[in-house]
Amino acid sequence: MKRIIILGCTGSIGTTTLQAIRSKSLPFRVVGLSSNTRSRELLSLAHEFQAEALCTTGSSLTAVEGVKTYTGFSGLHEMLQSLEADIVLNAIAGFEGLKASLSALMCGFDLALANKESIVCAGSYLFEVAKQHGASIIPVDSEHAAIWELLKGRDPGSIASLILTASGGPFRTLPNKDFAAITVEKALAHPTWNMGKKITIDSATLANKALEVIEASYLFNVETDKIEVVIHPESIVHSMVRTTDGAVYAQLGSPDMTLPIINALGNGHSSLVTPLDFSNLSLHFYKPDLARFPLLGLAFAVLQRGGSSALAFNAADEVAVQAFLGGTISYPKLIEVVQKTLEHPWDQTVGSFEEILALDKQARNIARSYL
What we know:
The protein has helices at about 10-25, 40-50, 70-80, 95-105, 115-120, 125-130, 140-150, 185, 195-205, 205-220, 260-265, 295-305, 310-325, 330-340, 355-370, and strands spanning about 1-5, 30-35, 55, 70, 85-90, 110-115, 135-140, 160-165, 225-230, 235-245, 250. Strand 5 (about 85-90), helix 4 (about 95-105) and strand 6 (about 110-115) form a beta-alpha-beta unit. It is built from 15 helices and 11 strands. The model has no long low-confidence stretch (mean pLDDT about 95). It folds into 3 domains: about 1-140, NAD(P)-binding Rossmann-like Domain (Rossmann fold); about 145-255 and about 280-295, no CATH class; about 305-370, RNA polymerase sigma factor, region 2, helix turn helix motif (Rna Polymerase Sigma Factor, Chain: A), CATH 1.10.1740. It is an alpha/beta fold. Keywords: Isomerase, Isoprene biosynthesis, Magnesium, Manganese, Metal-binding, NADP, Oxidoreductase. It catalyses: 2-C-methyl-D-erythritol 4-phosphate + NADP(+) = 1-deoxy-D-xylulose 5-phosphate + NADPH + H(+).
């Protein structure tokens, strides 16, 4: 029985994980759980899964008899130190998830990582911390999880490129002239995935794919020119690997996060998702339009630029998306805020969490000045 800790257990990834454990009787013992503010839901889940410890990072938590309780990110670190586990799933959304990733790695836990911001913002520093503490980072994002599986047993020298697929979001065919009329409600209407608000908006702008391009570069140690993006509206092909002999290998499956999550926690489980029926299956692929979705193109420029530009990209995007969701800026303005923030010099290479925090704060302040 594998002992696991789930951070961000009340969000989309956490909920999917617990549902899979519940419905498929998977051999996992949930020993620790965290949420941001949903303390009542957290307590209910703790009772159901008989967790040993709980933490809320954004609110107080009532004491529970027989269960260790913690609050705040300092409390989260204490919780991780107090538990014996085989792996930590970090499903905390946004930049805040980086704190949890570092805590898990510093405690020596292998990390199933659904928080792409950890890699985007910390870059090679995150992997250095993992190496120092003998821990592994395993991707949970469906695209990177697919590549992770496709690369197993392959000679790195045989890989020509990695191909990330993108659904294209709700505005894939919308004329550019109509972008100014995009509302929050329209941007949240994703055609294939049911996700949180922030990632759904990022999928509409293709900023999420931009973050995944940056993530792939660090995860798989590949140069910018070895990463491709293709628009695939059906979201059946999760990613592909192009080899030097000219062949392309792909992972196919229904748009269901159960498979990448559970495989990251431990391989060998059967019947995780419904097998594809090819009798009525049509797949389409298109080249991304970087003129209409410039944030995706900006990701490749960020990788070539280096320094702390990826961190600044994420910070500006989080500020702009929050403003868009709040109704204070338009969809085109969201794009503009990120672009203008990246026009500033971001040459410093991060070497500590304190440096990351300082640069993130600086980038957010600059982004807010353009709202």
